[in-house]
Amino acid sequence: MPLVEHLRELRSRLTRAVLAIAVFTILGLVFYAPILNFLTHPYNEMRPLLEREGIDTQLIITGVGGAFQYQLKISLVFGLLASSPFWLWQIWAFVLPALHRHEKRWALLLAGTGAPLFIGGAALAYVVLPKAMEILIGFVPDGFGSLVTGAEYFDFIVKMMLVFGVAAEIPLVVVLLNRLGLVSAKQLASARPWTIIGIFVFAAIATPTTDPLTMLFLAVPMTILYLISEVIAKLTDRKRGRERVDETADDDASPLDGPSELEGPSSVDD
User: What residue spans carry the region label Disordered (predicted)?
Assistant: First the structure.
């Protein structure tokens, strides 16, 4: 297509994506109460534990328009996440004609693997949230209360889920590098001790909390996923080695069949 047609198609697909986000954002406003209950469930689960220790904590919203801004922010994030399959498809459909068949296959494989890994990491963060907040708010000294604004609480949840979700993509990145031939299974095995140390350092820095328990909740799954990706890389290298052996065998020159006995020169009559 000419450039103008490409721009028209891009405009059309962007319009559809924005409309999808707007529709799901409106749904987020309609179903704001159950969404808010889902988000505040980790906090409500943690709060009685702190009350037993004598720490009074509660969620608050500040400012005259703070409640409306908070509702709008949550609804917009819900709209982006809920409509992500649709607007991601619009992006994919725009890029699809320019890809070769093997590139399409790899793109589908990456999307089909990366999305479940990210969702699994975000779900693990949601499970860890109550314990993480209990430890953090537990540093409040005696005689003090803890007031957590809605904006701070929502940002904390988003950061935790993003960190855990991105960290869950480690095996996908390692396998991709191995498939591209940039890293071999032997190199991964030799670098394993330093990689594990790096994972724990990343977990200590990336998690918003300062407690070792939350760090372990992030570092241990990352380590397991790295070991799984190392096994996949080993199997890939083994298969690649067999293919090379077969290609080499096909390229070998076949032996020439000759006579079993060499005939002597014929005699020449005088």
Answer: 238-270
Full pLDDT tens readout for the chain, 270 residues: 677 787 888 888 899 889 999 999 999 999 999 999 999 998 888 888 887 877 888 888 888 888 888 899 999 999 988 888 888 888 877 777 776 776 667 777 777 777 788 888 888 888 888 888 888 888 888 777 788 888 888 888 888 888 888 888 888 888 878 777 778 888 888 888 888 888 888 888 877 666 677 778 788 888 888 888 888 888 888 877 776 666 665 555 555 555 555 555 555 665
Distance CA 70, CA 61 (A): 8
> Residue 128 contacts by C-beta under 8 Å, 6 or more apart in sequence?
160, 164, 214, 217, 218
What residues contact residue 165 under an 8 Å CB cut-off, 6+ apart? 117, 118, 119, 121, 122, 125
Q: Which residues contact 96 (CB under 8 A, 6 or more apart)?
A: 104
- Contact, 199 vs 223, CB < 8 A? yes
Element of type H or E holding 59 = strand 57-60
Task: Quickly list H helices, the chain.
Answer: 3-30, 32-52, 66-82, 84-95, 101-137, 150-167, 170-179, 185-190, 192-206, 212-251
